[in-house]
Design brief:
Elements lengths: L1 H5 L11 E3 L5 E3 L7 E7 L4 H17 L4 E8 L4 H10 L6 E4 L4 E2 L2 E2 L5 E5 L5 E6 L4 H10 L9
Parallel strand pairs: 3-4, 4-5
Antiparallel strand pairs: 1-2, 3-8, 6-7, 8-9
Length: 153
């Protein structure tokens, strides 16, 4: 059932999305173009977010050197040290960025947490999941994803 939700096609482009990491460094999501990106909006106070974190870490570890990676976006107002301590406590090593609480991002609507967007290697948002995801869900979606073909006549 969740895979069906992930399969909802979206059309936004993530190429020009600015990000700020937990150390204050700024990057653009376009610097990750060429890999599948699992962009996960979450908060430390969100139990479903915490439950899915080992799945996201497992996916990231299995794919980061090849074809995909996870980018976590903390969607709350929290002190830098408290956030770093949280990440260490939960052994999170995928890149984490910060954001003020928001219901909308450059990738699309964030109706609740966690919300995960899947960005293709070409930089297009191709799916969104509201609620927890698993490594298997993400891998199945990527394996079965077929780009929408457009033909010009």
């Amino acid at each position: 059932m969740l895979l069906v939700t992930l399969a909802i096609p979206l059309t936004a482009s993530a190429i020009d999305m600015p990000l700020q990491d937990i150390h204050g460094n700024r990057v653009n999501i376009s610097s990750y173009q060429g890999k599948w990106l699992v962009v996960n909006y979450w908060a430390t106070w969100c139990p479903p977010c915490i439950i899915e974190m080992p799945e996201l870490q497992s996916f990231h570890d299995a794919h980061v050197d090849n074809d995909a990676m996870v980018l976590g976006i903390n969607n709350e107002l929290i002190g830098k040290q408290r956030l770093q301590d949280f990440l260490e406590d939960y052994f999170i090593t995928y890149p984490i960025f910060t954001s003020k609480p928001a219901q909308q991002s450059e990738l699309g609507l964030i109706p609740g947490l966690p919300t995960t967007f899947l960005v293709s290697p070409q930089g297009d948002v191709v799916a969104r999941q509201v609620g927890p995801v698993t490594r298997d869900m993400i891998e199945q979606f990527i394996q079965n994803w077929q780009p929408q073909l457009t033909t010009s006549q």
